[in-house]
Amino acid sequence: MNKNFKKEEFKKSVAENVKTLYRKTIDEATPQQVFQAVSYTVKDVIIDDWLATQKVYEKEDPKMVYYMSMEFLMGRALGNNLINLTAYEAVKEALDEMGFDLNMIEDQEPDAALGNGGLGRLAACFLDSLATLGYCAYGCGIRYRYGMFKQKIENGYQIEVPDNWLKDGNPFELRRPEYAKEVKFGGYVRVEYDEKTRRNKFIQEGYQSVRAIPYDIPIVGYNNHVVNTLRVWDAEAINDFQLDSFDKGDYQKAVEQENLAKNIVEVLYPNDNHYAGKELRLKQQYFFISASVQAAIEKYKKKHTDIRKFYEKATFQLNDTHPTVAIAELMRILLDEEGLEWDEAWEVTTKTCAYTNHTIMAEALEKWPIELFSRLLPRIYQIIEEINRRFVNEIEKKYPGNHEKMRKMAIIYDGQVKMAHLAIAAGYSVNGVAQLHTEILKNQELKDFYQMMPEKFNNKTNGITQRRFLLHANPLLASWVTDHIGDEWITDLPQIAKMKIYAEDKKAQQEFMNIKYQNKLRLAKYIKEHNGIDVDPRSIFDVQVKRLHEYKRQLLNILHVMYLYNKIKDHPELDFYPRTFIFGAKAAAGYKRAKQTIKLINSVGDVINNDRSINGKLKVVFIEDYRVSNAELIFAASDVSEQISTASKEASGTGNMKFMLNGAPTLGTMDGANVEIVQEVGEENAFIFGLTADEVINFENNGGYYPMEYFNSDQDIRRVLMQLINGEYSNGDMNMFREIYDSLLNTKSSDRADTYFILADFKSYAKAQEEVEKAYRDEERWAKMAILNMASSGKFTADRTIKQYVDEIWHLDHVTVEALNS
Ligand code: 9GP
Fold it and tell me: Name one Pfam family in it (predicted).
C-alpha cells in the first residue's frame, strides 16, 4: 500500500478539482467529470515521482532506450496507474466513502487505442516493464487524433465509427511546446561546396514543414517511484494562417502547410499485419521519427560534447519496419548538422539502431516506391541510396558475381525502397519475437541476411505485464494467488510456479473454479448488457479474441461451430456439454474477406442462439468493439484459449500468454509462442492439433496441397461448406458467403485455394475440441490443468523479455528513485 497516499487529502483534492475544472460541487458532477477530477488528483501524485525520476536521470546520466513505434495500445490509464502506485485499494475506499464506485469511474475513461493489436500492446507492456525494472526509457510515437476505430455491429456487419478519444481531454498528458521540432517534407536538395570544411553541404529547399509538438504521458513503474515517459507527437502548422501571406504570394504554401499538419496525425491506419502503402503513412512515419531523433540528439548534447559517442548513452529500438526511416534520419543529422564524415556517422548509426521483426507475412513488409519516397523525403532518399550503394558493394565483396544475392538483398531494387533490408543492413541487432519465428527468419524469410551477418540475429520471446493482466484484470484470482504464495509474483512472475503444489489440492481446485465462475458471471453480465444474449456461466467459455485475419483462422473456428450444430441437430440425444463460443475481433476497414467472416460469425450466432430445440447447448457471441478494457474482463473469464493460426504465420501472439496467466489452457497449433507455452506447461495440459510449421512451409514451397480432396472425401467438411452456399445461415441468400466458399475450394489466378490450410486442419481441430470437452467434464482434471497453466506462465512476463533486451541488446544502466519527500 502506498504510504504517501492520504485518504482525506485525496478526497479533498478530488472535490477541489471538480470545483476548479467544472464550477460544480462533487454531487453535481457527472461520472465523466468525477473521472477527470480523480485522474488529475492521481496525476499530482505521479508528477512528484516523475520529477524525482528526471532528477535521477539528470544526475546519473544512464544509457536510455528510445522505443520507437507507430503504435502504443495503452488502454485505460487510471486503474493501471493506481495499481502501479499501489494505491488502488486506498482510492477505492476513499471513493466508496464519497459514494462512488471506482470500477464505474474507470469505465468513464476511453481506451487510448493508439495501436492495432499485438504489436502496439507489446509496446505498452514493454513500457510498463521498463519503468518497473528501473530503466530509463522513452516511448516515441504519434498522438493520433483518432485512434483505432470503434466497431459497431449492425445487422451482423462491422461498421467503423471514429474513435474521438480526446473529446473530453486526456487528464494524464502534458503538452510540452518548449520541446517542439520542425519536420520538413518535399522540396529539393541543393548542393553547395563549403570552402571552409571542404565538403559538400546538402541544403533542403522549397519544402513544406510542420511543427511537431510533444505530449508526455507518464509511465508509472510498480511500487518504485520510477516514472518514465511516453512521448507522442502532435502536428501544428508552422505558418499559422497569416493575412500577409497574400502579399508575399505564398498564400498557397500557407494553406498547404496548414493541411499537412492537420492530416498528418489525424488517424491511425487500421491495418494489422498488412501495410497500406499510402503516402500519408510515410509522412506519419517520418514526422514522428524526425521529431524523436532530433529530440534524442538534443538531449544528448545537453550533457555531452562528442556526438561520436552518442550510442554509449542512447539506443533506438525500431518496432517493426514502420520506424526504420530513423536510420536515415540519424545519418542526416550526423552528416548535415553535426558535420561528421560518412564513416563516422555510419558507425554511430549502426551502433544505435536495433530492429525487431514481428511478422513473416509478406504483405506486412513495407516497401516504398522510389518515386514517392524521393519526392517526399529527398535528402533521406539520397542517404538511403548511398547506404544501398555501399551495402551492395559489400554483398559483391562477399559473394563475387552473385547477382541473385544482390537482387534479393539490396535495399533499393525494382523501383522500391525495402525498409526491412535497410533495418537489417544498418541495425546492430535483428530479433524475432518467439523461438519458432526467429528460426523461420533465419532459415527462410531472411536466410540470405542471416548467412551474411549471423551475429546480428537473436530471439526475444514476447511477454505481457502481469500487473495489468492479472493484478488489475482479475482481482479475485490475484488475491487468491497472493494469499497462497505472497505478492512477489507481481514483480517476479516466475514465483507463480509456487502455485503448482496446489494443482492437485481439492480445496484449491474448488477455489480456483469458483473464482473462474465469478469471472464468468461478470462476463455473462457484460454480454447480456451489450449483446442481449443470455449465456450459461456453467458452459465452457471457449474464446478467440484477436484481430480478424485469415491466417488467425477465425473461419476454422466458426466452421467447426457449424459442424457441432449439425451434430447436435442430428443427434439430439447426444450428451453434449454446453459451450459458449466467444469471438472478439476488428477487421481492417478495407479487408473484405475479414469482414465477411465477421458477418458469418454473427449469422451463425443468430441461427444457433435462436434455435430453441437445442436447449441452449450452444451459443455464439460476437463481442462488439474488442479492445484492451474489455479484454481484461474476457481473459479472466475464459476456459479455453483459441490460438489456432496456420503454423508458421503467427510470429508470437501475446493474447495466448494472457489467457494462460488467467488459467485458460491453450487449444492451438504449434505456432508462435504456443510452442513455448506447451514447453512450459507440458503437452498434456494443452490441446494441440494441426499441421506443423515445417509441413506448411513444405506445402508452400513445393505444392501438393489439394483442399478439394478433403471436400470430396469428408462428409462433415462437405456439408459445412455447402451450408455456406445453400442459404442456411443467410435467409436463403446463396451468394452471401460464396466468396468464403470459393476461397476454400476454387483456385483463382495466383492464389492457392485455402491459403491457410483450414480444411487440412479441420478434423484434427475437431478432435482436439472433443478432447477439450472430455477434459472439462472431469472437473478435477480441468482445475488441475488450469492451475498448472497459470502456475507455468512465469516465463511470459514482459519483465523477462525486457531483461533480455537490456542484457543482450541495449545494455542499459539500472536506476533507483527515492520518493521526493522521503
Ligand atoms: O502478428 C504479430 C504477433 O504474432 C506478435 O505477437 C505481435 C507482437 O510481436 O506482432 C504482430 N505483428 C504485427 O502486428 C505486424 O508485424
Answer: Phosphorylase
Of the candidates 257, 49, 232, 238, the residue with the CA atom closest to the CA atom of residue 142: 232
User: What pLDDT does residue 241 have?
Assistant: 53
Q: Is 229 a catalytic residue?
A: no
Q: Which of 547, 586, 649, 784 is catalytic?
A: 547
pLDDT digits (tens, 9 = 90+) for 658-714: 999 999 999 999 999 999 999 999 999 999 999 999 999 999 999 999 999 999 999
Q: Is 461 in the pocket of ligand 1 (CB under 6 A)?
A: no
12 catalytic? Reply is no
Strand partners, 158: 153
805 alpha carbon to ligand 1 midpoint, in Å?
17
ipTM comes to 0.99
Instruction: Count Cα atoms within 13 angstroms, Cβ side, for 732.
Output: 0
Distance from C-alpha of 127 to C-alpha of 619, rounded to nearest angstrom: 38
User: Across all residues in the chain, what is the average pLDDT?
Assistant: 96
Query: Is 658 considered catalytic here?
Result: yes
358: annotated active-site residue: yes
What fold, for 466-796?
Rossmann fold (3.40.50)
Q: Return the closest-CA partner of residue 337 out of 473, 484, 182, 228.
A: 182
**Residue 272 in contact with ligand 1 by CB distance below 6 A:** yes
Quick one: which atom of ligand 1 is closest to the CA of 654?
6
CA-nearest residue for atom 10, ligand 1, is 119
For residue 320 and ligand 1, the question of a CB distance below 6 A is answered with yes
Looking up cell 514526422 gives 287
Name the band, by pLDDT with cuts 50, 70 and 90, for residue 274.
confident
Q: Is 546 a catalytic residue?
A: yes
The rounded Å distance from CA 363 to ligand 1 centre is 13
Domains 61-76+111-462 and 466-796 share a fold: yes
Judge if the beta carbon of residue 366 lies within 6 A of ligand 1.
no
Q: What digits encode the pLDDT tens for the residues 726-776?
A: 999 999 999 999 999 999 998 665 578 999 999 999 999 999 999 999 999
- Which sequence spans correspond to the domains of the chain? 61-76+111-462, 466-796
Q: How far apart are CA 814 and CA 800, in angstroms?
A: 15
Q: How many beta carbons lie within 10 A of that of residue 24, not counting itself?
A: 14
Q: Which amino acid is at 761?
A: D
Domain 61-76+111-462 of CATH type 3.40.50.300:
no
Q: In this model, does residue 248 exceed pLDDT 90?
A: no
The question of whether 784 is a catalytic residue gets the answer: no
What type of residue sits at position 489?
W
**Is residue 359 lining ligand 1, measured as CB closer than 6 Å?**
yes
* pLDDT one-digit tens code per residue, 606-657: 999 999 999 999 999 999 999 999 999 999 999 999 999 999 999 999 999 9
